[in-house]
Amino acid sequence: MKVVTFGEIMLRLSPASLERLVQAKALEVVYGGGEANVAVSLANYGHEAYFVTKLPKHEIGESALNELRRYGVNTSYIARGGERLGIYYLETGASLRPSKVIYDRSHSAISEAKPQDFDFKKIFKGASWFHWSGITPALSPQVAKILEAACIEAKAQGLKISVDLNYRKKLWSPEEAQKVMIPLMKYVDVCIGNEEDAEKVLGFKSGSNIEHGELNVEGYKNSFLAMRKQFGFKVIATTLRQSHSATHNTWSALILADDFYQSRKYEINPIVDRVGGGDSFSGGLIHGLLTTDYKNALEFAVAASALKHTISGDFNHASEEEVLALCGGDTSGRVQR
Amino acid sequence: MKVVTFGEIMLRLSPASLERLVQAKALEVVYGGGEANVAVSLANYGHEAYFVTKLPKHEIGESALNELRRYGVNTSYIARGGERLGIYYLETGASLRPSKVIYDRSHSAISEAKPQDFDFKKIFKGASWFHWSGITPALSPQVAKILEAACIEAKAQGLKISVDLNYRKKLWSPEEAQKVMIPLMKYVDVCIGNEEDAEKVLGFKSGSNIEHGELNVEGYKNSFLAMRKQFGFKVIATTLRQSHSATHNTWSALILADDFYQSRKYEINPIVDRVGGGDSFSGGLIHGLLTTDYKNALEFAVAASALKHTISGDFNHASEEEVLALCGGDTSGRVQR
Amino acid sequence: MKVVTFGEIMLRLSPASLERLVQAKALEVVYGGGEANVAVSLANYGHEAYFVTKLPKHEIGESALNELRRYGVNTSYIARGGERLGIYYLETGASLRPSKVIYDRSHSAISEAKPQDFDFKKIFKGASWFHWSGITPALSPQVAKILEAACIEAKAQGLKISVDLNYRKKLWSPEEAQKVMIPLMKYVDVCIGNEEDAEKVLGFKSGSNIEHGELNVEGYKNSFLAMRKQFGFKVIATTLRQSHSATHNTWSALILADDFYQSRKYEINPIVDRVGGGDSFSGGLIHGLLTTDYKNALEFAVAASALKHTISGDFNHASEEEVLALCGGDTSGRVQR
Amino acid sequence: MKVVTFGEIMLRLSPASLERLVQAKALEVVYGGGEANVAVSLANYGHEAYFVTKLPKHEIGESALNELRRYGVNTSYIARGGERLGIYYLETGASLRPSKVIYDRSHSAISEAKPQDFDFKKIFKGASWFHWSGITPALSPQVAKILEAACIEAKAQGLKISVDLNYRKKLWSPEEAQKVMIPLMKYVDVCIGNEEDAEKVLGFKSGSNIEHGELNVEGYKNSFLAMRKQFGFKVIATTLRQSHSATHNTWSALILADDFYQSRKYEINPIVDRVGGGDSFSGGLIHGLLTTDYKNALEFAVAASALKHTISGDFNHASEEEVLALCGGDTSGRVQR
Amino acid sequence: MKVVTFGEIMLRLSPASLERLVQAKALEVVYGGGEANVAVSLANYGHEAYFVTKLPKHEIGESALNELRRYGVNTSYIARGGERLGIYYLETGASLRPSKVIYDRSHSAISEAKPQDFDFKKIFKGASWFHWSGITPALSPQVAKILEAACIEAKAQGLKISVDLNYRKKLWSPEEAQKVMIPLMKYVDVCIGNEEDAEKVLGFKSGSNIEHGELNVEGYKNSFLAMRKQFGFKVIATTLRQSHSATHNTWSALILADDFYQSRKYEINPIVDRVGGGDSFSGGLIHGLLTTDYKNALEFAVAASALKHTISGDFNHASEEEVLALCGGDTSGRVQR
Amino acid sequence: MKVVTFGEIMLRLSPASLERLVQAKALEVVYGGGEANVAVSLANYGHEAYFVTKLPKHEIGESALNELRRYGVNTSYIARGGERLGIYYLETGASLRPSKVIYDRSHSAISEAKPQDFDFKKIFKGASWFHWSGITPALSPQVAKILEAACIEAKAQGLKISVDLNYRKKLWSPEEAQKVMIPLMKYVDVCIGNEEDAEKVLGFKSGSNIEHGELNVEGYKNSFLAMRKQFGFKVIATTLRQSHSATHNTWSALILADDFYQSRKYEINPIVDRVGGGDSFSGGLIHGLLTTDYKNALEFAVAASALKHTISGDFNHASEEEVLALCGGDTSGRVQR
User: Fold this and answer.
1) How far apart are CA F53 and CA F10, in angstroms?
2) What is the domain range of residue B232?
3) Which pLDDT tens digit goes with each residue over F284-322?
4) Active site residue: A117, A164, A197, A279, which one?
5) Do D335 and E101 touch (CB under 8 A)?
6) Is residue E336 part of a domain?
7) Which of A62, B54, C205, D100 can bridge B113 by disulfide, Cβ–Cβ 3.0-4.6 Å?
8) What CATH number is associated with residue F171?
């Protein structure tokens, strides 16, 4: 299936192993960003995945593009030009020490992109699905407008649209977010995000009273039902992370589609790299919804994203076969010869 | 004591730290193989350990030989010539993601070795023990024949013979294995392997009904007694691995000699490198059987192999003193100054 | 506040990641030593921290000095000259395999320093605190004399003095230690160390009968009261380490000041680098005693040193803000964006 | 323009910097092979470059494919399957010490490919050029047959065909080479190779008596004229390497097309990596012949390949703009800001 | 002597060894910038060197500051705050392939600094010299104003002022440069730069007609005399680089002070890192002018900067003693034991 | 042939590539020392080479021993015990910047060895040659005595003895050297060293007036004749190094045996690592004198040591075949496939 994602890819710079930034003499290069990560997941599962963005013409922009190409993402519709590639510095935590992200993403090529950089009529031809996250419209009012036009075109061509709400407080305030995001929700079929995200990004309040970090499944169900009522989403899903330490998390997910369903839980210990965990869930969920029923889709998505936590970098280098093996219940980690 | 092992050593190529193979820009070089690993263990415990194989004449063959020499293995009887050194690619897993091995070992120098490459009469002179694994005869019918001749010579010179059954499905089918292996068992004094191995490699069925991964000690005992009856082994031993994840295993072992005995259990978390874990058990067991009683031998072997899981590479770089400290019960990991 | 520490800094050489020393082809360079580590902690918390020692004039001595400067320690009173920089080789353990330290510190510049190398009258001008450990007087009788003179000068200028008892069996015997250390205790306001240390270094016996590794809080309290009585310390504190493995420790601390107080406990798993853990406790405690009450001081110190276990190298690269966040109870390790 | 190349890509393993193979603890991973290298050059110059081969289905095969994709080569027609990826070990020389290559390429997937693995009718649709080297038919008689069928199809569809004669003595003898290669020459428009190659691969003898390494331009001209007469090539070109040491070469080239022409000379000192130098010449020449006259084509090709010697790996990571700047005469190496 | 420099320090990111940016998987971290580099040189020669700039409060800003501190630069007057640290990507060339710099420095903290960030009255107290380059006022009109105020204060306190003209076409046009720079020249005692720089930055035309890259010493002398006449500089100096390739340069310098003088020439082959070469000349010249006569100052400066070309990173890690040894004529490179 | 060498092996620590020591964050580990290096060369040429020394019992001592074993040196007679392994820090120079060595070798195990550590009667059994250098007796008076006893035993068993005069000013003064060395010369058959060495170590003055660095061959001949007359050496040889820069040397050698002979000259550019260059000459010369005539021996030795300059580390990893290829005149550095 042809799937299109639209957003920002950044240069990620992180010290080797578990060094702190103030100790680093070299920084490892990874390229990543919400929608790019989703595109890589989908390419790994055999889809024709397109990532759309704008990248500067120099070698750093070229390298970001090359990395996408390398893992099978179609980059034909990436515009070239603009000032710079956004950067984020990542310091990976361990045990009691949290990971830390420093953003240096202002003035990136994509944040200053113009409508004429993208021909969505052409881009969406033959496509089945369009995915974006709450980060994309937060990049700049300009990009928010481009995104809205893309949603309209996608709907016109009959694509399914999914959004990962993903609130980023460094990019905008809840008020700014809501002003932009609420009008976009009418194009969305599949919403990924929980009550907390929905509160900040959509101004949503369910009254179901879920404490942060608590696994009140009934509360989530009520909250999802209310979100569906208010915004008309066909599917709502979210991951549930219990964070015991920077190294050890419990991971599961919930979905509301035909009915409400809770996935199995995974103990992830140690975590190798949790950045991109949410995106790998979105990638897995889209693949699942395109190919199977909503329960299996959720199980695929949560297994895919559990695996992601054991893989370094933003991208989820896991095949459909590997995800299915984990879904199938083999968590023993025995050597595959 | 002089101990001789015979088999294949391969070039192992693995990405740094926990990268996946598709992410790697460099591969770490390790040399290893069942019988070579056993020889290194024995050299570490102070024995005169010989490893016998055939290696190509070029620098890659030389490097494998050098690595053995470096860690005190006598390489005087390694034949030189042939096409290539076998390779295996290893991707180390973590948590829910299993380690993965890709073999590229066909057409190796040892698999195409000829009888005249080895003078076992000379090789075994003054030796006490001969060890090999089920991988050696699986390399090629030629090597199986060389091995049988070696066993006959070893018996003639009065050596003890141990085998690690080690079934490798990429090398042969159970039928092929049994045809070659069963006739070789009459030379074997010490058999390392459990009912599962015995079933595939020796066609053995105890009827004791042990579920995979379960610690049914009584069942194992019955199974060992039946194996002893059928094949005449003087000693039968096996490790028991409970695999909670790629990072966390519980490790213990069983032996049938004068009587049946179960070792203490070790929690290994995190595992640094579990490849060679079984070989380090064999190395520890041979050392133990050469120097102490069967119960202490088993405790030494299981502690040695528990330690191996915390050491990178195929070889067990642990001294007798370090193994004994662990046997003695200090699992606290306190800094040794 | 101006704080002065006096002692030895060494070149630490350790294999990358979890390799054993016999496998290493390169060694990572870290500089560290008890009192230097304390000075770095204090510089991180915003104090004017001076480290006093003697370093050889060549590039290796220069590099040790540079590393201190880099992290904000004032190095103006470091004497230059002498033969060599002391070295310690560190092999980091994992799970059942303990870390291992090999010292090569004899004949270092500081151990052969002379009284005229340091002008403590000038060094202590305007300072509030002087810290040293039991390692400093163990370096040589000469250094013990220099230290005593420094203590006298510090008291004359009204500084608080703290000591970390820190017994090192490779440097001196209990008898030698007691002969030097007991007379120095009269200058000490704050003593860091437990009954065990006190027994070896001070010949102290409380009769409170604490088993090694046991958390007999009442016993500790009695022991601390007895130490206070015998030596006149105003404050006594110690850390409590429960070592489950080289990778997993439980960490807490005790203090006797106005009253007796036990800190909260931290599970540290995995440990990244536990060398310098005790020094980061001392650094945190001095900061705490300089800025808050004894209970908060202890909580700050134990949180600081828990964090240190997750940071590579001897130095504790953690800010006051990060330590306070952990004190405040957030142990979830969630990504800080 | 669409250009197709067909051949083998191998995993290249080489020690870091200038280490010898017997010193290596890690090997750097590069993927390369004559025709793959040409395809990358052409992709860099903006062509639609296809590389056709067969790669095993596992991660190592995937990684070779990914590396091609990463640099813009179209991999849609690469067949998947077979046993292994060919390997070559490269030790880079310096000064008086030559570089050394150890091949481990037998039994590769491409050498055991079958006609049905490739649909050249489809592959050549819309293409302008087909390039291969003398290595391809040397891989196996099977591959030689596939190649002949491809040549016939290419001619039928009106493509230009170029060959780089490239004799490899480890793959076949001159007799074997000539038996296969001579009948293929009738399909060839552009022949890259000198009298020496032509003698071994085509059994050609001009009688013009050129001493090895000598720059007898008149002799080359006569030799080229004779080759044209005998084989009907429209264009003949060759590079001229004067090898002063492993680090310092003089590099130029000759062409016979409308007329005979000698390029300018480049001093290359130091050489960073000369593997792939000839392939980058072929890539540059094809680009030149597709876009400009034969003299400019030769100057582009020789400048491109001079640049390649300063770039690590098999691939020539140089843009058309960079090659043109060097062609234009700027050899000063001044920093480009 | 106390010397103050004022300008920008950037994070420099470059691939290991001689890789191209599109090949890099990790980037080496160096911090550097014209005036910071000069400050490090002066600290190495024993001066009290201050570097003044503004750095963001996060860990990347902290790391830049730490690197200056590490090498002995006083950082007390560095303001903290602002958005980001400027970045430049550096690809090191070899032989025919030039080095390449990609700037990503817009919106840096220093470029958006405000007058109140710096108290130059306090900063210059007790100082002898103030150095800046043409890059500083090019950062923003704001910074140009701060610089002018600093020059006025420096003159008021009797400091010598030196400028390195250093035209950067990515930062401003000649017209913009001249508008800002010409009025600043009245404060300058020592001007570093040649006719070319003077033309772009100062609109200067001598009519002496020097061809680029040519060593027309008489022409330079006339040009310097004219510059002195027009701008009133007490000393004018420039380096002369003959660039044979990215790896091999000839390096010398000229000065006009009491009289005109040409330094000895150095062959630099290979160049390890030529970035910062000009800054190390400025640092050497300031040191020379502060401590000796103008001829020896020039010889010191040119030897210092020749050495810099053999040292990686922006900073010149060479001691006064090492520079003097080279000045003294020992270019043999014999091992110093 | 069995050859024995006796002396010190040290841990060499050097920054990666061309960094300076003050920049290093990791140090590469190499083991080397004059006589150890000679032993490795001889093992590479197929001799049974023994290196005799004393090494501490810990892992660092073990690693030095392992490295010798790895490259085929017999380590059976290495004594174990003592305090520490000597260290030298090496900073590799480039172009105008010389390499720099910092020694930290005092108090090493070998320097404090005792006569009973070595049983030279047994060690020399069946040996043909004994080699040592002027460094060995400089280690301590104790070692000088052990060496003298070894020389007496070697002569008694009929071995040839060679010495490399090798004056080290950090270890002793000329006066001390002469007092120890002159009496040892009566045991020496082959003396390696030039007039300069001979002057410092042996107090020799030929009056032939050779300027340092000059290639006055007639002068060398006269000087050698005088040395032969005074000390009775059968063979005298020396290398001649013309040091154009740290990167570029011209290398040749002279010998006086049956007659006087000068070798061919080699241009070495770039030098990869010149440490051990002299030792590789000694190793080549001993091999040559054991297997061929003195002229061919000299050519072999000078070619071997020219090659060494292109190989990193102290050891000369070059085979007899490779040395002979260079002797045979192939200096073109063409790739060996």
Assistant:
1) 11
2) 2-327
3) 999 999 999 999 999 999 999 999 999 999 999 999 999
4) A279
5) yes
6) no
7) B54
8) 3.40.1190.20
